[in-house]
Amino acid sequence: MSDVINSPVARGQGRPADDLGALVFYSEFDEPEPWAEALQQLLPALDFRVHPDIGNPDDVRYALVWRPKPGFFRDFKNIRLVVNLGAGVDSLTNRDDLPDVPISRLSDPGMVALMRSYVHFAVIRYARDMPEFERAKQRRDWHYIHPRPLHHTRVGILGLGALGAAVAESLAGLGFDVRGWDHAAKKVPSVTCFHDPKDWQRFVGELDILVNMMPLTPQTRKFIGAELFDRLPRGAKFVNASRGEVVDEDALVAALRSGHLGGATLDVFENEPLPGDHPFWEMENVYITPHLASITVPEMASRDVAESIRRVHQGQDPLHRIDPRKGY
Ligand code: GLV
Description:
This protein is of the alpha/beta class. 28% of the residues lie in helices and 16% in strands. The strands form 2 sheets. Strands 8-7-6-9-10-11-12 form a 7-stranded parallel beta sheet. Strand 10, helix 8 and strand 11 form a beta-alpha-beta unit. Helix 3 crosses helix 5. It is elongated. It binds glyoxylic acid (GLV). Glyoxylic acid binds next to loops.
């Protein structure tokens, strides 16, 4: 634990007069120290406490949390703001312990840059035939495949929220033919955007690579399944960088086994860690990463967290507020 976390201010003793109250931090993945240090710089009057060592829960006015356990919020009667330590807020919606206060997600440039880099990697790997060269190397085979111009690769981005739109625009900037789908009408520079259900087949039916960037909500759970895979052209590739539960994994396994799908790059899964006996591990055309496409970068994201706390302290709305009924 750093000095910041152990400081008298952090322990709730000797608080300054302009006291903002306490913030509770909870995550099984993120270290608290960088957040404590960054927030202490920005909000010296904030009392940063790391769960479960939180002292009197009645002092807590803000929560900065990643996937808190069920019942977590019951202890905190005076909470005014919940900030999700990430982009996807699915672990904060559909739970019965959540206080009726604003919920914010993080949306910082560091997270966007990491997500872009992950999807660029996956798309470029397919568009430049890298899986073929990975296999050819195993055979010591100088296996020439004539490169295709980038604009011949049609990439579809499913979900044009903050991250999906940023990824779509940057792929278009690299020279790919990018199309986007969202349930609402969206405009993304250099991207052909669809939203009308009558255009669904036009969107899905002409893709070389489909990238899922949809949030997990009751409407999107298992949305990507056999019906969608059947509509993709034979040999299309699939990339999932949002949530595993948006995909029907049995249907994905079947589409990959039948050869209808040519490959998948998966960062997220229905069950994480991916169980050791899951068929994906054995499938040569599946590329697996352990849910790290994008993470929050405390030095950058803490500015938005501090601004949201300031705003809520002054009775205003926080940044990046989500609608818990919609789930994003
Ligand atoms: C990561 O999965 C996030 O939602 O930020």
